[in-house]
Design goal:
163 residues, alpha/beta, Rossmann fold, 6-stranded parallel β-sheet, 6 strands
Length: 163
């Protein structure tokens, strides 16, 4: 199983049927596959917090939403995550390309890369950092149910070495 198959198959097998995305080079193959999948509604957005609101609406409409984005967008989304999804206990799967980790070539990505796990911990949100495609598949597949049980977003952080 390759890294892209693991994410895509984990979403499908986890029952995700609505995906919002913000462009990311690491996620591009998955986003293209989502565009072609008639069983998943894929809504590209320009800002992560916009995507959080759309996912909340999709959940109210009976969908199982996920957002795919870079971890840099987490900073843009903190208020929406805390005041919308957590306050109203909306489940949400957040799959993040975790930039700024080992192997990062863009120095400007490093500060947020280092801060991302601590930000999620400070928000009291569970997250996984799978190291292999098999781990990613399993973490993604089971995260929707965890998110429903906790009434909070669950994140999957896919570091550079994952790809």
């Amino acid at each position: 199983m390759d890294s892209n198959d693991a994410v895509y198959d984990g979403l499908k097998d986890g029952g995700i049927d609505f995906v919002v995305s913000v462009p990311c080079v690491n996620l591009s193959e998955i986003l293209n596959r989502l565009d072609e999948d008639p069983e998943i509604i894929h809504v590209p957005v320009t800002r992560e917090e916009e995507g959080i609101g759309i996912c909340a609406g999709a959940y109210l409409g009976g969908k199982k939403p996920a957002i795919l984005m870079q971890n840099s967008g987490l900073g843009n989304s903190v208020n929406a995550l805390k005041s919308l999804t957590e306050l109203y206990e909306f489940p949400l799967l957040m799959v993040m390309s975790h930039r700024g980790t080992e192997g990062e070539s863009i120095v400007g990505q490093v500060p947020m890369g280092e801060s991302t796990p601590r930000i999620l911990e400070a928000m009291d949100f569970s997250f996984f950092k799978p190291q292999t495609p098999e781990e990613a598949y399993n973490d993604i597949r089971r995260s929707w149910e965890m998110s429903e049980e906790e009434g909070k977003p669950i994140s999957i952080l896919l570091e550079i070495k994952y790809w």
